[in-house]
Amino acid sequence: MDTRVRPQVVARSAPGFDLRAWSGTHLERVEQALSSWVVMDAPAGLGDAMRYAVLDGGKRLRPLLVLAACEAVNGHTGAALRAACAAELIHAYSLVHDDLPCMDNDVLRRGKPTVHVRFGEAQALLAGDALQALAFELLTPDDGTVSAAVQAALCRLLARSAGYQGMAGGQAIDLASVGLALSEAQLREMHRLKTGALLQGSVLMGAACGVVPVAATAALGEYGAAIGLAFQVVDDILDVTADSATLGKTAGKDAAQDKPTYVSLLGLERSRAYAQALLAQALAALDASGLDTNGQARTHALRALADMVVNRDK
Amino acid sequence: MDTRVRPQVVARSAPGFDLRAWSGTHLERVEQALSSWVVMDAPAGLGDAMRYAVLDGGKRLRPLLVLAACEAVNGHTGAALRAACAAELIHAYSLVHDDLPCMDNDVLRRGKPTVHVRFGEAQALLAGDALQALAFELLTPDDGTVSAAVQAALCRLLARSAGYQGMAGGQAIDLASVGLALSEAQLREMHRLKTGALLQGSVLMGAACGVVPVAATAALGEYGAAIGLAFQVVDDILDVTADSATLGKTAGKDAAQDKPTYVSLLGLERSRAYAQALLAQALAALDASGLDTNGQARTHALRALADMVVNRDK
């Protein structure tokens, strides 16, 4: 059973669109590509640790967002597949490092022992480092399949999503916030960087695989920002309401680590309402994007993914 | 006193060329660029840790190699300055991670407490991660100053130098080799990846800033491979013959950690002879490159840097 994607309210935002079938097709391409690109021939066990970190797990939300955005702009599918995998590698490396003892010290991830538990801390550190480099390697093939302009744009977007203005910066705020009472604005800024930047970056990388009017790119950026934040709000909700077995990772750890969350700040009901408001915002951005003209519903996958992000149960 | 570069036998390989003056000019540009690009506005102390890791220290050998190679091919100096800084960021991040307790557990680097001693392990981990991303960010400006083709080529070279086929792969072999009796071939392979790949990559990035015949690029690659290996042989020699105060890092740590080195494998005298042979090889590659035609000694800085690598005392 494919448990990675379980759309529940697809009908509401993308009538007639079958996200399960769409995801199935696209996930198969992503899994095959990841398996062939995350190499076994890396030396001294490094390849094993890299593959363990990446393969066989995860919702693959970032790859799906890249591919859905590429579809929305009728972009270059080969470039998008590379960008999809690159975004997933950045995500995977961040989890490996985040799980290390000096960070969250977590032993369970996607229902399996974390990378450092399985391979040791040093190898986990290196595997994360190598995955980040591999992401940029995937974006820069020298086989003539992807134009230099698209390669450069993808590297630009990914580097900014991953670095100090994005994911790594958000992690630093997270680190500094344990035990502190954050305002909602501070919490939002932390998540905008920590999780939102790479989700939004995934959408924008998909858009960069095609030729798009500036206004449409801006709309896709708004969509990405809204679902990026919604993703974290829902994560905070699930950390409280779901159990470890369903999540495939340790539930309740935010509260245990005294981390500020949307639930601790807004309460459960207001957090749920906020997630729904962000979904509406994401869909409104797509409405305004101008991409669904001439009777073509190009944004249907993006719409259904937004639904899935907000209404998932794991 | 500028103690970073002390050429000693410049006259031999690049007659009449003043490496000290050349380096002084170029290092000033590199330091200014690093200081402006390694940002203070990264959140929650991350910027402080990043700057601490990068600024105010190091021989800056990789940046100098990029700039010297760019000069040899009469390339785009703006692109080369970005590539020079990007290579240094990758080097700096690798030192931060390499010094962590789960790796070499070192407390002294460039005469100062290591990043995790000063900022904590978690922040050091994040600073390293963010520096790697920043390297690719520097290579992909969107201000029109560097062509997309050069941006893509630089990202391609840097990612391969840093990743599983390069530095990270070499680190993994290093990790797996402690206490083992390596053959010379195995030791060479480890260093070719661990240190050599980024040094060679720096030379090739400099070359990618210009338009070069394939044969010249190949010759520069040979030069880079030779000095990359020579660098490590000399490092092994200095680990035995120099003291911590001169090195600015803990001397004798290879032996203390029971790591295989050229000195432990070949002895001191044969290691010294090997380093000189590699220098000769590097210079021969430049002779064959065809870059010094029409009475123009374009490779003089590369020659003098090769001398410095082999004949340095720290």
TrEMBL record, chains A, B:
- Keyword Transport, does the record have it? no
Needs which cofactor?
A: Mg(2+)
GO terms of molecular function: metal ion binding; prenyltransferase activity
* PROSITE patterns recorded: POLYPRENYL_SYNTHASE_1 (PS00723), POLYPRENYL_SYNTHASE_2 (PS00444)
Q: Which GO terms describe its cellular component?
A: cytoplasm
Family that this chain belongs to: Belongs to the FPP/GGPP synthase family.
**Which GO terms fall under biological process for this protein?**
terpenoid biosynthetic process
Q: Protein name, please?
A: Polyprenyl synthetase family protein
